[in-house]
Fold this protein.
Amino acid sequence: MTRSVQALAYARPSALEPAGSGRLLGLETSGGLTPSGAEARPRFFSGFLTSPQIAARGLLAVADVAAARYHQRMRPGSLDPVVTGNGDRLRFESFSGCGGVYARLDVLSAGLDGARTGHGTTNVDVNNPLREALSRLTGDDPLHLRVGPEELAVTTLDGPVVEKKVPLPERWLRGFAEAQVSSAGFDLRAELPGPEAVRFLRSLPRTRARGLGPMWVVPSGRTLRPTTRPVAGSVCLAGPDRLVALERVLRHASALRVYGPVPDGGPAPSAWEVELPGMRLTLTLSPDPARGFSGEGGVLEALATGEAAQDAELVSVLLAWEPRIDLGDLAARSGLSVARVRAALTRLGTAGRVGYDVAEAAYFHRELPYDADRAERHNPRLVAARALLAEGAVALDGTLASVRSGERRYQVRESADGRLSCTCVWWAEYRGRRGPCKHALAVRIARRGATVETVAGGAR
């Protein structure tokens, strides 16, 4: 697995400290991006949390996921959570070390009582002493939250810093993009009131039986019941033990909402959102505990097109840290169709520049604080497809194409609706559920290149 090293530099450790009649939760930030450009330690918020104990538990749930590996548990996760200020809310995000669980805590305007929230994205220090202090937090004494350095200390931050150097797998980076693409295809499948949500989640098995396929659940009255196979309205729950982080906030839940795609007969991702006072905690699960989001291939079509790359450059200029990106408005401002805007946002997602909120069925703007462009440059299938093109292995013939790969030759066919199928083993196993194979991807790139050359030739 290819890895880079991410250096996170904090002015001091984050801490929970006494402050007047209450406490101060000081979350220290590392290098990030804001509307003013790159900042060493941006400041996003200073004010009170309206539900301090619940917010503390929600933040711990996000940190739990960042530190977890639900598959091959012997190796710990590594990265501090990411925080984004969107003007009206704070979003705390993390990914499990195995790349199969994405967590996000949205602290909405109703959960914040203070000056207007800033804009930007950075890592936030959640260290072990802070986790222990937050775990002991009880009652609803006033809790002041500061995200970023104290204003009076900003000019003195050239002194010693707390530095963490952590491995950053590229599959982890790709996972952020793939989770966003998967979530954009979800619909609300079920909603349970708080007491039923607690009963259902606590009834789930704590361990995963080896050799068994994914679990499925389907709405039944006010709750969910398990089913052995996908049926209309059902949701895949692969690895129910991966929802354990939700237990941090269960007693405060007013509702549980479950999102997923239309069942197609195979394992599928899903999102599980707990509604809390002034905030939401969402866990998005990959289709299989042993299968992270990085290999799902949902972004490959967008990465393969030069058009999407150009559109992404245009759309990126128009983003303004919106908590909800309006596709119609962005299409009107950019002069692009909604479909091209969506493809551009998918491409921007590969660089961590947009996420997707299933609760609001909308994209949001963020800028992940690391070189996520590496995820595109080193995507294995994209690299392999471009290598096939460079070798002259692709031959086009109408709706049929031939691709030479090693000693074999594969046939790639385009259907009337533009979908590509292939005679390779990958396609036979996944039937497009994990994106195009390298052969189909090479053909897609070749066809678009041929189209560009034809148009250019006609113009001459």
In short: Residues 438-459 form the longest helix (22 residues). The chain has a mean pLDDT of 84.
